[in-house]
């Protein structure tokens, strides 16, 4: 003799009473109060999803309207953070000090003199606040110490590199992503 087949019941999401599903997507029993409560919950969730999607779309459209200068600064900020972490144990490239109240990422060939070298890590090294801001970068001392850090071949490449470059928004976004990933790798490794 076979045992009678048991009918599977599910608990109502609202009143927690057991019920038999008539449809796969049914979440509550057929009590009108439970149906209304569940309907309100689902409507609220749907509105929240739509609001999140709308905010994401608005944010994306606002980012598209940002000027190129915004993206240049974001990329530079990411590169500078990477340089400060990369050279954490190094002294100031210009004066050789290990004690400074604030560290910068100083360019040997300035951004104004060469936009093409703006994000080149071989052109940027840790520099103390005093040298970078108040002493104009001390480029002669910087130049004297640079070949020892990066090698003569790289030094010559930077010295004779093309000077002008027009950066695009997409390039800046790629540079920012690349250097954020490199920074994360340095901090984790």
Task: Explain the overall architecture.
With 189 residues, the protein is mostly helical. The protein has 2 domains: 57 residues, no CATH class; 121 residues, no CATH class. The protein contains 6 helices and 4 strands, in the order ββααββαααα. The strands form 2 sheets. It has a two-stranded antiparallel ribbon with strand order 1-2. A two-stranded antiparallel sheet has the order 3-4. The longest helix is centred in the N-terminal third of the chain and has 34 residues.
Layout: helices, strands, pairs:
Layout: E1 10-11, E2 18-19, H1 32-65, H2 68-86, E3 103-107, E4 124-128, H3 129-134, H4 139-150, H5 152-159, H6 169-188
Antiparallel strand pairs: 1-2, 3-4
What are the salient characteristics of this protein?
189 residues, mainly alpha, 2 domains, two-stranded antiparallel sheet, 6 helices, 4 strands, elongated
- Briefly note the structural class of the backbone: mainly alpha
| Distance between the amino and carboxyl termini | 68 Å
Question: Number of helical segments?
Answer: 6
User: What string gives the helices and strands in order?
Assistant: EEHHEEHHHH
Q: Give the biggest sheet.
A: 2 strands, antiparallel
Count of domain modules = 2
The counted number of beta strands is 4
The amount of helix comes to: 40-55%
- Major β-sheet strand ordering: 1-2
Mean pLDDT: 90
Q: What Rg is obtained from the alpha carbons, in whole angstroms?
A: 30 Å
Q: Stretches where pLDDT falls below 50 for ≥5 residues?
A: none
Give the percentage of residues in beta strands. 5-15%
Silhouette: elongated
